Amino acid sequence: MKGKIYWLFLVPSAFILIVFFLFPLLIMFYYSFLQRGVYGGFEPIENVKEYIFNFIWLKNYIRVFDPLYIPIYIRSLYIAFLTTLICLLLGYPVAYYIAFKVKPERKILYLFFIIVPLWTSFLIRTYAWILILRDEGLINLLLMKIGVIDKPLPLLYNEFSVLLGLVYGELPFMILPIYASLERIDISLIEASKDLGANEFATLKRVILPLTFPGIIVGVVIVFIPTLGSFIVSDLLGGAKSMLIGNLIQNQFMIARDKPFGSAIAFVLSAFVLLLLYIYRKFLGGKFEVL
Amino acid sequence: MEKVASSIEQALIEIQGVSKSFGNVKVLNNISLSINKGEFFSLLGPSGCGKTTLLRIIAGFEKPDSGRIIIDGVDYTDAPPYRRPVNMVFQNYALFPHLNVFENVAFGLKYQNLSKFEIKKKVLEALELVQLSGFENRKPSELSGGQKQRVALARALVLKPKVLLLDEPLNALDPKLRKEMQIELKKLQHNIGITFIFVTHDQEEALSISDRIAVINNGQIEQVGTGYEIFERPRTEFVANFMGARNLFNAILHRLGKHIFEVELPNLVKFRISMNDEKIKPIPDEFKFVVRPEKIFIRKTPLKNSSFVSVPATVESKLYYGASTSWILRANGFLIFVEEQNRDVKFRQDFYPGEKVYAVWEKRNIVFLETR
């Protein structure tokens, strides 16, 4: 009796996931095999047999790999990789500092400072960066006023500003899981390491880093995946040259009105991410049970 | 040269006037101790007495507010843990969960400039020493508590420290295994000859395992001595009480002659004792003494022998423990605890609650306490 009633608790969230997530996903999957109509929308399928056997349904997926788009994918991977790396390099010391150097009663305050930007819409925060970075922005005005530079530095609409915006947005998601895994480390393990002759650096390398590897992986995954599909930052802070996969997909839906092709790119991207996770599981997952 | 020196007891560790506070709490108050080479030394005290803090100061995990730590003639007070010739066995073992047994034991050897072959040889030797050969590839999560304990020991001993620090290492083991490990630890320490500093709150463990014991209370050393001295000749009320000498008497001393005194337990009994010169000084007119429960026996009549004291009492209750029987007697406001070994299937004598009896002990079993 008791055991049977618990599945009822799952119903609300299962309902939301099925209706608002799985169902739209299936619709998109279906779209990705259709063809764009002349005025947007979809080309009706006249001959089902011909459609199937002439591989017309695969056309979008073949087009995804058109050399025209390859540079966009490479740049997206590069930007996502760089963002993740920078987040890791910046985030780990912060998490380490909060976990080990901040007094226990003040940790909440520090974590609060990391989370508080998330209370404002990401879009607004990204716009705020424009005000800071543009030619008449905060940084350039300040630098010119104190006479460090004569003319504004090109801070906005380039790769730098895109990276800055992405790192800024994703950093909390790197810090928090690493902090959680650092907090879980038994202090006596660190003491044991030092007791056995390892100095601070060796202890970090041989004990702390391996033990926080699960946290690092979680951080890397939850930073890398959204970055790979992001479009707001590159749209607002990037120049004309910095189109990413996210922008490409968005363009298909909003500008080119080619929903089928947009869906196809989205699914190839998802498949790629799943493949990465699979590779991770296959080669490292047994060692560190995280995902 | 060295052999001659080692036959003489020499202080390996000098703890000089160490004090430590956490916030407003004074955890250690001016502790001074010297521990000899090859000694099995125990820090014994109730939880919160500061014994673990003292051990952590020796290991280098805490810095004392004042005082010095000298090991083998070198001042290590300000040295980080990784530069000290000491190693620690942690209460929860602190094995690295991401490394297997071999890698755990080899962890510290990396800093000793050894070849891979030498490291392997030393690790295997250390594992053999703790009887864990063949466990090299196990992960700590695949070991029992006793096995983890042995790995932790091997990991520290393989580095050949001058001093091995053990922080209540047997606490997590079940009583039977604990007894076995006590014997094994003692044997191991004897064989390898490394100085052990062993923290425990278990009196019996400290007595059975140690060469010497320091009893610590409230951040201060109450008494340092062999197990026998601590047990049979406690110097303070705390040590007496902690070691189970439950019969504490407040007495008045009357001097009758140069070495002859009369001890008065008010409204109870008076008896004469003789003391030599060195004992006389520390005892004031009013003082306290203890008699251990097992040194007292019960009789129906007083014992007319000048080397015994007989105190009239009433039987209050009896607790049968199997190996021993505990009696509680009441003597004019005092409670007297008596413990009797059941040496024969037949009770030597049985008494009933309310019965008028005499608690009898030999005068040489009286331990005079220092008054502070």
UniProtKB/TrEMBL annotation, chain A:
Residue ranges crossing the lipid bilayer per the database entry: 7-31, 77-98, 110-132, 160-182, 203-225, 261-280
GO annotations of cellular component type: plasma membrane
Membrane-related topology note: Multi-pass membrane protein
Coiled coil: none
CDD domains: TM_PBP2
Domain ABC transmembrane type-1: 73-280
InterPro entries xrefs: MetI-like (IPR000515), MetI-like_sf (IPR035906)
Gene3D superfamilies, alphabetized: MetI-like
GO terms for biological process, alphabetical: transmembrane transport
Keyword Transmembrane included in the entry's annotation: yes
Keywords: Cell membrane, Membrane, Transmembrane, Transmembrane helix, Transport
Compartments in which it is found: Cell membrane
Family affiliation: Belongs to the binding-protein-dependent transport system permease family. CysTW subfamily.
Name of the molecule in the record: Spermidine/putrescine transport system permease protein
Source organism of the structure: Candidatus Chryseopegocella kryptomonas
Automatic annotation (TrEMBL), chain B:
An annotated GO BP: putrescine transport
Annotated SUPFAM superfamilies: MOP-like, P-loop containing nucleoside triphosphate hydrolases
Every ABC transporter domain range: 13-243
Gene3D superfamilies: 2.40.50.100, P-loop containing nucleotide triphosphate hydrolases
Matching InterPro entries: AAA+_ATPase, ABC_SmlMolc_Importer, ABC_transporter-like_ATP-bd, ABC_transporter-like_CS, Mo/tungstate-bd_C_term_dom, P-loop_NTPase, PotA-like, Transp-assoc_OB_typ2
The entry's keywords: ATP-binding, Cell membrane, Membrane, Nucleotide-binding, Translocase, Transport
EC assignment: 7.6.2.11
One GO cellular component, as annotated: ATP-binding cassette (ABC) transporter complex
Function: Part of the ABC transporter complex PotABCD involved in spermidine/putrescine import. Responsible for energy coupling to the transport system.
Family assignment from sequence similarity: Belongs to the ABC transporter superfamily. Spermidine/putrescine importer (TC 3.A.1.11.1) family.
Subunit structure: The complex is composed of two ATP-binding proteins (PotA), two transmembrane proteins (PotB and PotC) and a solute-binding protein (PotD).
Protein name as catalogued: Spermidine/putrescine import ATP-binding protein PotA
Organism in which the protein naturally occurs: Candidatus Chryseopegocella kryptomonas
